[in-house]
């Protein structure tokens, strides 16, 4: 092990050398007993023995910032140990970190490519260097599908607990000329809190005729097993979606504007 040489090393805050510089004496004074250590150590032009003595005998009583920095090569022992392993993906610690990370990505609408962003990766390393972020492939093929299934079970349980459900839907075209249709369910839960849950946002490549939209919305509602449990329907007044919802189920239809 190597340690910063005198006069830079912090060991000299606690040690003094004898006249011929062959022995150093620890002058650490215990704050409770007021006793001085006075332990003598051989001095051979480096401070490793003194640093080890402080870590072994007085570390609990000395602030971290006042301890000498013991190094192996260019890394401190603490840093070298911290970087010597990563959390195993099957460990509870890894799952405890991965779950909120996945929630952050999904609930803030981040692109999955964020896991390849070097700045994002570096930031996570500063939080906990032993946590290695999963690959984009694992997120898209394993983590996100599992999250969706878990979310779906919870939502279906909530929907089964409420009697009245209301549907809003809309279709639009992106800047990349891709067509989408979305559906959101609104209800009041058992705690009398208004809930709005988007149950679908899917690409719909065909022309948005009223018949096509009706088929797509029916597929969405059947998937969530709520086709016959909708009290009212809401949308804008575009002719295609208006005719679609008027024909879809014998329920109240309310145009938004």
From TrEMBL:
<feature type="domain" description="BED-type">
    <location>
        <begin position="9"/>
        <end position="59"/>
    </location>
</feature>
<dbReference type="InterPro" id="IPR003656">
    <property type="entry name" value="Znf_BED"/>
</dbReference>
<keyword id="KW-0804">Transcription</keyword>
<keyword id="KW-0863">Zinc-finger</keyword>
<dbReference type="InterPro" id="IPR052035">
    <property type="entry name" value="ZnF_BED_domain_contain"/>
</dbReference>
<keyword id="KW-0862">Zinc</keyword>
<keyword id="KW-0479">Metal-binding</keyword>
<keyword id="KW-0539">Nucleus</keyword>
<keyword id="KW-0805">Transcription regulation</keyword>
<protein>
    <submittedName>
        <fullName>E3 SUMO-protein ligase ZBED1-like</fullName>
    </submittedName>
</protein>
<dbReference type="InterPro" id="IPR012337">
    <property type="entry name" value="RNaseH-like_sf"/>
</dbReference>
<dbReference type="InterPro" id="IPR036236">
    <property type="entry name" value="Znf_C2H2_sf"/>
</dbReference>
<dbReference type="Pfam" id="PF02892">
    <property type="entry name" value="zf-BED"/>
</dbReference>
